[in-house]
Amino acid sequence: TSNMLQKIEAAPWPYFPVDLMPLLVALAIKAKGEIMFWNKVYEGGLFWAPEIMKFGAKIALADPHRMIVFGGEKLEPAQVDAPNIIRAAIALTMLALAIDGTSTIRSADSIKRAHPNFAGKLQEIGADIVWS
């Protein structure tokens, strides 16, 4: 069974919290290997995945609920549109910061709702980020 595809199921307790799925997807994209993410909470809840794919991430959308991430691939800077989901916008930012070059994340105002000084805090720890 070591060759089985690992999966993370986002669902109500005791499963993985669906709000954290975009952040874990971003981490999985940077790690080597394959993993399936299954959103059991929201119909079409993975609608933000195509924006992550603009960085060159290899993701197979199995259906509106499941995606397979093929991690460890080289990513490229991109211009992406952040969804109105705070953690998905943060996941796009995480990936952009992990890539050499300049990326642009449009419509990321959703982050300011929960984290008004998000860019400032990242700058404090050395991130090259500009909020305009």
Describe this structure in words.
This protein is of the alpha/beta class and 132 residues long. The protein has a single domain, classed as Enolpyruvate transferase domain (UDP-n-acetylglucosamine1-carboxyvinyl-transferase, Chain, Alpha-beta prism). Helices cover 30% and strands 21% of the residues. The chain has 5 helices and 6 strands. It has helices spanning 21-30, 49-53, 86-97, 109-114, 118-124; strands at 6-10, 33-39, 58-61, 66-71, 79-81, 104-106. Strands 1-2-4-3 form a 4-stranded mixed β-sheet. Strands 5-6 form a two-stranded parallel ribbon. Helix 1 packs parallel to helix 3. The longest helix has 12 residues, at 86-97. It is globular, with a radius of gyration of 15 Å. The termini are far apart.
What is the structure about, briefly put?
Pathway: Cell wall biogenesis; peptidoglycan biosynthesis. The protein is about 30% helix and about 20% strand.
CATH architecture: Alpha-beta prism
Output the number of helix runs.
5
The Rg value, from CA coordinates, equals 15 Å
What is the strand content?
15-25%
Q: What name does the CATH topology carry?
A: UDP-n-acetylglucosamine1-carboxyvinyl-transferase, Chain
* Fraction of residues in H or I helices: 25-40%
Count of separate structural domains: 1
What best-fitting shape do the alpha-carbon axes yield? Answer: globular
Largest sheet: 4 strands, mixed
Task: Supply the CATH superfamily name.
Answer: Enolpyruvate transferase domain
Structural class: alpha/beta
- Please report the total strand number as a whole number: 6
